[in-house]
Amino acid sequence: MSDTAADPRLLRAPPKKGIRLSWADERLRAIVWQILVLGVVFGIIGWLVSNTQHNLEVRRIATGFGFLSREAGLPVAESLIPYSPTDTYSRALLVGVLNTLKIAVVGVILATIIGTLIGIARLSKNWLLSRIAAVYVEVVRDLPLLLQLLFWYAILQGLPGPRQALHPMEGVFLSNRGLKLPWIQWQDAHSFALLGFVLGIVITVLYARAAKARQMADGQPRRVWPAALGLILGLPVLIWAGLGAPWTGDIPALRGFNFQGGVTVTPEYFALLVGLVMYTAAFIAEIVRAGILAVAKGQWEAAEALGLQRGLIMRKIVLPQALRVIVPPMTSQYLNLTKNSSLAVAIGYQDIVSISNTTLNQTGQAIEGIAIIMAVYLTISLSISLFMNWYNSRIALVER
Amino acid sequence: MADIAAEASAPRPVADAALAPRRPPLLQVGPLAWARANLFSSWISTAVTLALSYLLIRWTVGFIDWAFVKAIWSVPVTPQGAQTQACRALAGSGACWAVVTEKHRFILFGTYPYEQHWRPALVCLLFVGLYIVSAMRRFWRPALALVWLATLTVIGILMWGGVLGMPYVPQERWGGLVITLILSTFGIAFAFPLSILVALGRRSKMPAIKMLCVVYVELIRGVPLISLLFMASVMFPLFLPEGINIDKLLRAQIAIILFAAAYLAEVVRAGLQALPRGQYEAADALGLSYWQKTGFIIMPQALRLVIPPLVNTFIGFFKDTSLVLIIGIFDLLTAGKTAIVEPAWQGFGIEIYVTVGAIYFVFCFAMSRYSQNLEAELNRHRVR
Hints:
The complex is a heterodimer of chains A (400) and B (384).
Chain A: H1 8-11, H2 26-58, H3 89-122, H4 127-141, H5 145-157, E1 166-169, E2 172-175, E3 178-181, E4 183-184, H6 188-218, H7 225-242, E5 249-250, E6 253-255, E7 258-260, E8 263-265, H8 267-294, H9 297-305, H10 310-340, H11 344-347, H12 352-363, H13 366-395
Antiparallel strand pairs in A: 1-2, 2-3, 3-8, 4-5, 6-7
Chain B: H1 2-9, H2 14-19, H3 30-38, H4 43-69, E1 77-78, E2 81-82, H5 85-90, H6 98-109, H7 118-135, H8 143-160, H9 177-202, H10 207-222, H11 225-239, H12 248-274, H13 277-285, H14 290-305, H15 307-320, H16 332-339, H17 349-378
Antiparallel strand pairs in B: 1-2
Helix pairs in contact in B: 6-16, 7-8, 7-9, 9-10, 9-12, 10-12, 11-12, 12-14, 12-15, 13-14, 15-17, 16-17
Pfam family, one (chain A): BPD_transp_1
Keywords (chain A): Amino-acid transport, Cell membrane, Membrane, Transmembrane, Transmembrane helix, Transport
Protein name (chain A): Amino acid ABC transporter permease
């Protein structure tokens, strides 16, 4: 680089000096402070580690993750994958992780839907509706989640037994054994239909993109929804019908002292789901409300002045702007719901915390047990934040 | 007909018409108009109002019936235990408040010696007094820290006893509401200063210190509080040299402090970031040292900005202290849950949880209202 081309601002940069060995030099002080703090922190950590090693030796506690391949011998009430007590600890922990994901995924979806509805209800022009929504939000947010979980669990346990089960409609039973729902007997045709459904969604997304690209090119809007309907609904139905349209209901019925058939939602899962969803929905409602209020009224008026229809205004003008305000706090609510699902241990739903806890009690390896819990939650938290950050950057305002 | 038409067209006596005040149209002002605008503005709104009123009335009547009309307030207690047959006969159609009547001392004070219950009761009042004093803006001055120190010392003396003629009560016997208040108050008292240091550290220019604070905050915020409490209850004893034993309550308290500090640090950091750069530069221009700048210029303004979210975080912690139930510490919720373990009282969980919930609600609702008022007050200069 030649001197003549130098940026005049660069010339004003202070000349680089070496660090003076004096307390008056800020950089020297910074280095000394950092060395001191790091020294103290690592000293404490080292002291704790050496204590721990000593204690483990004295108490003859094994270390390492060798126990993972041993037989667990711990019964698990509900599992998404085949599991028996003779399986290994690693499989039991996998069952726990899946159970955590089962509650977290369903909980996030339901809480988003219900929370959004309550948030919109709070903004309703109907006084009674908005007051009820406000009272709900205030009450639910001021009670500990654990208390709410215990409350719902107590209510479910107080329900009558299978013989006197509540029976609101055909094939649905609510008793102290949980919720029984009808299901279909799963056959290959259903799996293929499901595959067709997923395929339909993928093709629709690709088609919609192509249609949008062509609209951008020639300005002609193209109808996507007839094709979308045919692909997403028609394709699976066609596949299902082509394979002989099997349809055998698996309807629960009372036999003896318990129910046979159907799918069961256990009281533990049900209480946990209801508690988590109702609690998180109250927080989500506030976020949605704040997001919608954050869009200036002028935006509505300007869009109306352009002659856009109400639905179009909501979809193209208001929602994209509200989402920018909504998404970041929503991310932390999703993370909270996932972390709060660990309260399952209090009502006996066997999630990863519950199973790790049993494992550490059986093996006595506390450090490994807690490390597993923390690793699982850190992974889930990180994945959710990465996904939501990606989504957030997609919808963020593109500034010049 | 003709008469009326004639009268209408006839010139009226002007004075009368001008003087007699006419009533405004019924549907323009007053309660009817309000109802029309806010409850029956369209047919959908009308349908929603009617459906909601029906449900509301039905549930209110049902609740009053359960909680008051059919409720049983006390049952005879014989040497064999409480006779709860009357309650069982209700089969859930009425509340059995007898369980609360019988167990309220246990729920509030745990297994603290019965004759000494005035001590935890006084402690609860002291805590509430401390909260009220701290909430008043006219007491927001450095001396408040001394008030806290003095009150917490008095609370310690009252709880432990052993002096002034009060018998010594070991920590294992403390329980109930007092534990909830101790865990949350001491938690905030220690977590708050720690969080300020961490927030400053996270914005520091020194890379090693910044890294340390980032790792601490993100690690704690990434895991549930339960895992920290488990760590405190089963892993912590392994960390210490042999022979040193720290009480379980203190261990849980440390876990809560570390947890709270990470979350509070993020709130404080938001305040630091919201402060205009000019404030930092002006302080530098005055030649203030880092700590002078932070203590006199930056912190007072940054904290003021984040008071409402700080109070919301406090509400969160007050509720989160209930998680110590899982490691078996005797707080308000655990005491409530334990009260119904006795066979005679089994199955009356709903009554207990409603009562315990009401206690939590009073504290959290007060804080929440306070935070809303404060926010409005602090923002008054912005709203014209």
